[in-house]
Amino acid sequence: MPLGIPVSKTRYNIDLVFANLFFGANFSFYVSLTRNYLDFQQIFMLQVLSAAVFFIPFALFSKQSFRIRWRDAGNILIVTMLIVYGWMYMLLWGSSYTSPIDASIISTLGPAVTLITDHLMHPHKYIRARVVGVVCALIGAAVLLFDHGFVLTHGSRAYGNALVLVAVVAIAINTVIIKPQLERLGTLVVMGWYYIIGLAVTAPFFWKYIAHTQFLKLPLQAQAELAYILILGTVLPMYLLYRGTEKLTSVHTALYRYIQPVTAGILAIVRGQAVFDTANVVALVFIFAGVVLVVIGYKYYVRHGLPPVGSDGKLRA
């Protein structure tokens, strides 16, 4: 098991594996649907609605909901906005302009963002060596963002990549912020409240996109892709991601994100949607090297129980 996770937590590692497999496949279907059949706003509203239908009953009929404190409610509100608008909306918007391979490679920045957030909330884990790793990861993202120039023109591939980057930052931050509530209230209750709030902040603005759309008249392939996104690409992996986050560390949650570009890349190539180019390879190498540096530093200090600050008050290298 990665980073020495006990065998008793194997199921939660498996949760994270499958969550990222399902998320990785989404990129190919996002591109296919948004470029041929539906506006991204339609898919966005359907995602929120399908998740709400599944998760809200767990919040309404659970005794754990009565244990929610004001601090819990504040965290859930913040994370709901990060999930609904920061992740779902931005990811769909960006995927409508970029390629599945670019989008999935950018998603691997998640570990670096998670660890930066983890440092801001738990400074005792920070060491200088991790700065190098984060810089490498950001260089990798810049390679994709500026591969075709340094201007983020609206509707360009770079513009789509930038939107995907915003989505990745949002999903990475939220898994750190919400962990205390997941541990205290349980995954299903927290996610139920996500979508009570999520439906309230999206339906007034986006219901019009699906109110008169005849989805059953879409081609069978489009219906199948949409069904995948809503069930296997949203409801199930969201549950698996947060159940794994509840039981494991933020570092583990972040590292399993490397499954996504493999899944997305294979599916995009098989479906003729994209090919790996030099920019993809260079970006992936930088991002992967960056996260390896960050995690090696984290493992070393955790394993040896060393404080990140020496007796002289300086950060250890």
Number of helices: 13
Order of helices and strands: HHHHHHHHHHHHH
The count of strands amounts to 0
Question: Which runs of at least 5 residues are low in confidence (pLDDT < 50)?
Answer: 1-7, 306-317
Mean pLDDT reading: 78
**Integer-rounded radius of gyration:** 20 Å
Name the overall outline.
globular
The biggest sheet, with number of strands, parallel, antiparallel or mixed sense and barrel status, is:
none
State the domain count.
Answer: 1
Protein structure class = mainly alpha
In which range does the helix fraction lie?
over 70%
Approximately what portion of the residues adopt beta-strand conformation? under 5%
In whole angstroms, the N-to-C terminal distance is 27 Å
Q: How is the quaternary structure best described?
A: single chain
Short description:
The chain crosses the membrane at residues 12-31, 43-61, 73-91, 97-117, 129-146, 158-178, 185-206, 226-242, 254-275, 281-301. The chain has 317 residues and is mostly helical. It has one domain.
